[in-house]
Design goal:
about 70% helix, Arc Repressor Mutant, subunit A, mainly alpha, single chain, 8 helices
């Protein structure tokens, strides 16, 4: 097994930032930035590298999502001053997994060979990088719609916007995302 160098974790920073941005409770945004949470996740990951069973990208991303879910649950516990709610943490892990799966599904349907899976994982990281470069409101709308499968009404309620405003955010966000991805390809 190849040893995972701590610097390699840096390539997952934008991926984690996109997930943290969407899943950070809006009540905490004035107190905490998603980048702060991601930094804590990477710090925890570096200290736990020796326990990682594989360095394959799907394993690393799942492992980092689990650490992110734990970190987000810790943030909620800290600010809510509740006891740790294991059900809430598991629910958060499920939501993060669904978001990550949504990103992968958005890129490709069924790719079963190891080389196609590896390429797809690289594409997911490229997509996350491009999403991370978008303004927060555009990125959140895209991730909620296309990665989590939320309805326009659910997004409008979450973002405190009208349906036409959400549709406009999605249109502009997708245009900017395509432009970033095409610029990355060319």
């Amino acid at each position: 097994m190849t040893e995972l160098n701590p610097e390699i974790l840096e390539r997952y920073r934008k991926y984690l930032t996109v997930l943290a941005s969407v899943h950070l409770n809006p009540r905490f945004r004035g107190k905490l930035d998603p980048a702060d949470i991601v930094q804590q996740v990477l710090t925890r990951a570096i200290s736990a590298l020796s326990g990682l069973r594989s360095t394959e990208s799907p394993v690393v991303t799942a492992w980092l999502r689990a650490i992110l879910a734990s970190e987000l649950a810790d943030v909620a516990k800290h600010y809510d001053r509740d006891k740790r709610d294991v059900d809430r943490e598991r629910s958060l892990e499920g939501e993060l997994d669904r978001s990550a799966s949504g990103m992968g599904a958005w890129l490709a349907a069924d790719q079963s060979s190891p080389s196609l899976r590896a390429a797809r994982n690289e594409d997911v990281l490229r997509l996350a990088d491009a999403l991370a470069e978008l303004p927060d409101h555009l990125r959140d709308a895209i991730v909620l719609k296309h990665c989590q499968g939320w309805t326009l009404q659910q997004i409008a309620t979450r973002m405190d916007k009208t349906l036409p405003a959400v549709a406009s955010l999605l249109r502009r966000g997708l245009e900017q995302l395509r432009s970033r991805l095409n610029g990355d390809l060319g």
